[in-house]
Design a protein that fits this description.
Order of helices and strands: HHHHHHHHHHH
Mean pLDDT: 79
Oligomer: single chain
Number of strands: 0
Distance between the termini: 97 Å
Radius of gyration: 32 Å
CATH topology: Serine Threonine Protein Phosphatase 5, Tetratricopeptide repeat
Largest sheet: none
Structural class: mainly alpha
Number of domains: 1
CATH architecture: Alpha Horseshoe
Low-confidence stretches: 9-14, 42-54
Amino acid sequence: MAEKIRYTRKDLKGPDEFISTFGQIVAWSKENQLKITAGILVVVGVLVITLGGRAYFQWRDRQAAAEIWPYLNQARMMMATPGAASPGTIGAMERTLSALVSKHKGTKTALFAQYYLGNMAFGRGDFEVSASRYSEAIEKAGKKDRLIVFLLNTGLGSSLEASGDYAGAADAYGKAADAKGSADLSLRTIAQLDKARVLELADKKSEAVALYRRILEEDPESTQKSLIEIKIARLE
C-alpha cells in the first residue's frame, strides 16, 4: 500500500515552489527591464548592421560592374590588337579607368580595373608602373577573391621578371600558385612553372629542379609533363 504523504497546515499555506521561482523571475525581469531591452537592441543592431552592410557592399559591386566593365571590354580589345589604338587613346583609357577605380575603390570590379591598368603599363614597357599598380591592388584584395589574387600576383611576377628582379618574381609567382591551391591545378601549375623558370634565370637550378619535380607529383597528368621532364634532364 502506497505511503500517504501528510501535509501540515503550514505546508498548505506556504507558496508553491514553481510559482515562487516563477514569481522571482518575473520580479527580476521587471527590475532589469532596461538591461534586457538594451541587450535585445544590441543583438538586433548587430544583425541589421551585418545584413545591411552585406547588402550595401553587394549593391556597390553591382554599381561598379555596371559602370566599369564596358570600359574594361574596350581596354581588352585595345590590348588584343597592339598598335590599333593610338598612345593618346590608350592614355585616355588609363585615365578613365583610374578615375573609376578611385570612385569604386574596394569593389571587385575596381580590382579587375587595376589589373587591366597594370597590363596596359606592362604592354608599353613601363614595368615599374605596372608592378606598382599590381602591388597596390594586391594590398586591397587581401584574400577577397582567389582568381583576382592569382591574376594580380601573376602580373606582378611578370613585371618584376621583365625588370630583372627574379627573386621578387619568384615570390609573386609562388603567391599566385598558393592563391589557387589544389582547387585549380591547371592554373596552379602555370604559376609554379613561371616560378621555376625565374629560379633558373636566377641560377638557382637545384631549387628549380625540386619545383619541377613537385609539379609532376601534384599534377601527374599535366599537359606540360613532357616539357617539365626535358627541363629536369637538362638542369641535372
